[in-house]
Model the fold of this input.
Amino acid sequence: MKSDLAHLTIAKARELLDRGDVSAVELAEAYLDRIAKENPKLNAYLEVYDDVREQAKAADQLLAAGKKAALTGIPISIKDNILLKGKIASAASKMLANYTASYDATVIDRLKKQGAVFLGRTNMDEFAMGGSTENSALGPTKNPHDISRVPGGSSGGAAASVAADLAVAALGSDTGGSIRQPASFCGVVGLKPTYGAVSRSGLMAMASSLDQIGPLAKTVADAEILFNAIAGRDPKDATTIDRPVAPAVANKKLVVGVPRDFLEKGVDPDVLKNFETSLAALKSAGVEIRDVTLPNLKYSLAVYYVVMPAEVSSNLARFDGMRYGLHKDAPTLLEEYLATRREGFGAESRRRIMLGTYVLSTGYYDAYYGKATAVRELLKSDFAAVFAQGVDCILTPTSPTPAFKIGEKSADPLAMYLADIFTVSANLVTLPAISVPSGFAKRDGAQLPLGIQFTAPYAREDILFTIGKLFEQANNA
Amino acid sequence: MISTDDVKKLAALARIKLTLEEETSLAGDMENILGYVQQLQDVSAEQHAVAADANAARNVLRPDEAPHERGAYSEDLLAAAPARQGQHVKVKKIL
Done:
């Protein structure tokens, strides 16, 4: 019985808890057992919290009192850049190795009120910068499907925790694909919500015009449940929006747009083949597939690698060793800054801070940041134009390749960046996007998961959930 | 071209101390990445003629009223500081 408990969806766990077939404590213990057994191999969790049983007990009391909510008693993992008061939150950086969160992130507060059970904090690329978790100061996470490969990143620990049944679902963050790409590499669902749909209060800022918190889960339905629990306006994040009342999409033939010209080069043949199979599955489920053109899509990665480091260099300026986190003693204040930031930041963080400093510096600002911002607006218009033609969502692969080997790209930053080619655009244009598992590619005898990514109009997560569920059914049929 | 001198200057601006080796390898990395983003120069985008976007991200500020109780969070926040003196974060003198 106990081992079966660790293969659940939120929906199934909810059923078991509500019927009293299992208590929240039993459920939590099943996951703690699995984590104890599997985590040493995977390094998905950086820390398992010491009060998981107490949290579960409190959830059982809520259930007994008839005060259940969607996530009451559901064990989930938290990415290490989301604050949980009284717990360490390190962003997998030496800079914050001993930093204890002073307050709860809004998403944590909302889940606490529902009685969710937080199992622990998951590994990531330092400060969410990377696509493999190799930039973690605490060593990489391994892909549960092949431990010689990366789980993707930056929410690699989150994706691995769900894929390996070390959590029912997870919270991650996505600045340029950091939820969707690891979800695709690990064979789980990952949602990057609309910019402003979920509060970032208590999320460590990386690039503030791009960052969003979102769910990683086993099914689209689970991702929807977790999204509904965390979304909505928050006075503590001025960029948050009210949840719009979505017009019904039921009883309408869904139209999926495919930017064919963008899939021509640099995409792995197995990924392309799987993409065609996925399109066929959608067609057979009654979806109309239409070719679309987004003329500026090819520039999205270049725009991203200007805008993102610019914002990173500003946001990471706060780590100066004075108010919290690492502090290195030195004779003068300036030397303390230099020593603290030298010791605290890993190589990739330094690289992006330097790039950002460059593109924002006098003489280069207009050519880089100014230009990138202008092209970003063109890209927004491209998406708006396609949706205006009656297209409900846009489909691409999530990543151009399946999971790569640990160490394969770590010496070449640009090669690593190119893996973000399909995911960065949703962040740049503020739109919601979801990665759904679409099959496997065989490599060295291992079956490596692949994913496809749907991008919907502003605040239309509902379309992503509808088409995502439709695809899950069609693809598993 | 990004020279190691450029890297030194940027590192000073960014308050990051680098070794000689890192200066060289960063110069190479930055050269590559900036070479890639150079393609943006091909786009003719008018920097200041940006179309109005109904969904443009904008801040929604709460009314400036009902502040939290004075000092309610001070202790939690000060507890995180590497050095403090009473109710202040303690740093080395600037001048």
The first strand of chain B starts at residue 84 and ends at 85.
